[in-house]
TrEMBL record:
<keyword id="KW-0472">Membrane</keyword>
<dbReference type="GO" id="GO:0020037">
    <property type="term" value="F:heme binding"/>
</dbReference>
<keyword id="KW-0812">Transmembrane</keyword>
<dbReference type="GO" id="GO:0022904">
    <property type="term" value="P:respiratory electron transport chain"/>
</dbReference>
<feature type="transmembrane region" description="Helical">
    <location>
        <begin position="107"/>
        <end position="128"/>
    </location>
</feature>
<dbReference type="GO" id="GO:0009055">
    <property type="term" value="F:electron transfer activity"/>
</dbReference>
<dbReference type="GO" id="GO:0005886">
    <property type="term" value="C:plasma membrane"/>
</dbReference>
<keyword id="KW-1003">Cell membrane</keyword>
<dbReference type="Pfam" id="PF01292">
    <property type="entry name" value="Ni_hydr_CYTB"/>
</dbReference>
<dbReference type="InterPro" id="IPR011577">
    <property type="entry name" value="Cyt_b561_bac/Ni-Hgenase"/>
</dbReference>
<feature type="transmembrane region" description="Helical">
    <location>
        <begin position="21"/>
        <end position="40"/>
    </location>
</feature>
<feature type="domain" description="Cytochrome b561 bacterial/Ni-hydrogenase">
    <location>
        <begin position="17"/>
        <end position="205"/>
    </location>
</feature>
<dbReference type="InterPro" id="IPR051542">
    <property type="entry name" value="Hydrogenase_cytochrome"/>
</dbReference>
<feature type="transmembrane region" description="Helical">
    <location>
        <begin position="46"/>
        <end position="64"/>
    </location>
</feature>
<dbReference type="InterPro" id="IPR016174">
    <property type="entry name" value="Di-haem_cyt_TM"/>
</dbReference>
<protein>
    <submittedName>
        <fullName>Cytochrome B561</fullName>
    </submittedName>
</protein>
<keyword id="KW-1133">Transmembrane helix</keyword>
Length: 216
């Protein structure tokens, strides 16, 4: 009874889960990603700075994932397909345990977000200067003979980026929207299921102290 009450009162026992770097990374990423989206094809210099900010934040997070910060470590939360599917199964049966750190489904989404963001930023960087595409091995020709007579220059007459690279960049950016929507839905879902505001926890860093059955 006391336990149940302590969950709802303001002085409930909490534990620190997300370190400052993870929190600054997260909300910085949200801001930079939103800026890159809103300025795409509108204000190119800001678009590029925002895109590079995304890339820098992701690079920092990748390094931090190997550092000694418990719930930030990739080995703490990234699980294989078996464990991830098992967790999704337990979700369907409405029996999924509460994780203090990222749950396996959230972790799979985080991997997808980081990879897609990296791909979006990388293709954007390649596109920004014609010389950069020239540094690539002749991959496009191997992938699609239809592009074999493309001289690799992504720029048309008007100086606008075009061609397969732009298609890839835009497709990845659109895929990001789908992933972010699913990510936010997952956050809302898990928040309701475990009766805690996970978005708020990503701001304060604190979560409700573990209870029996929770996975720490
Ligand atoms: C406003 C919408 C968003 C909310 C409310 C939100 C909330 C959260 C929360 C609560 C977590 C921790 C999940 C957990 O408890 O396991 C998280 C993690 C994460 N989110 Fe979001 N998120 C939002 C938008 C985004 C966007 C737009 C991106 C990417 C551009 C993103 C990328 C990530 C990543 C990479 C993590 C892993 C954090 C880490 O361990 O470093 N999120 N988000
Ligand atoms: C990771 C974050 C990024 C996102 C979400 C993003 C998103 C987008 C989107 C949606 C478009 C299509 C605009 C349109 O034509 O409708 C676009 C175009 C473009 N992006 Fe990005 N981008 C990102 C990073 C970058 C970076 C880092 C660069 C280069 C430094 C870059 C360079 C470009 C260029 C050159 C175009 C083509 C603009 C044009 O000529 O039409 N992007 N981006």
């Amino acid at each position: 009874m006391t336990d149940h009450l302590s969950v709802q009162t303001k002085d409930a026992t909490t534990v620190r889960v997300w370190d400052p770097l993870v929190r600054v990374f997260h909300w910085g990423l949200v801001a930079a990603f939103a800026t890159a989206w809103l300025t795409a094809d509108e204000v190119q210099p800001i678009h590029e700075v925002a895109g590079y900010t995304v890339a820098g934040l992701v690079a920092l997070r990748l390094i931090w994932g190997f550092a000694d910060s418990r719930y930030a470590r990739f080995t703490q939360f990234v699980k294989g397909p078996g464990a991830t599917l098992a967790y999704l199964g337990s979700m369907l049966r409405r029996q999924e345990p509460r994780y203090l750190g990222h749950n396996p489904a959230g972790a799979a989404m985080i991997v997808a977000l980081l990879l897609t963001l990296s791909g979006t930023a990388f293709t954007g960087w390649l596109m920004a200067e014609p010389d950069r595409v020239a540094m690539l091995p002749a991959l496009p020709q191997i992938v699609s003979p239809a592009w074999a007579d493309d001289d690799g220059d992504e720029y048309g007459e008007g100086g606008e980026a075009e061609g397969p690279l732009k298609e890839v960049h835009e497709t990845l950016a659109n895929l990001m929207l789908l992933l972010v929507a699913a990510h936010a839905a997952g956050v809302v879902f898990a928040s309701i299921r475990h009766r805690e505001n996970l978005a708020r926890a990503m701001i304060t860093g604190d979560k409700r102290a573990p209870e029996p059955g929770d996975i720490t």
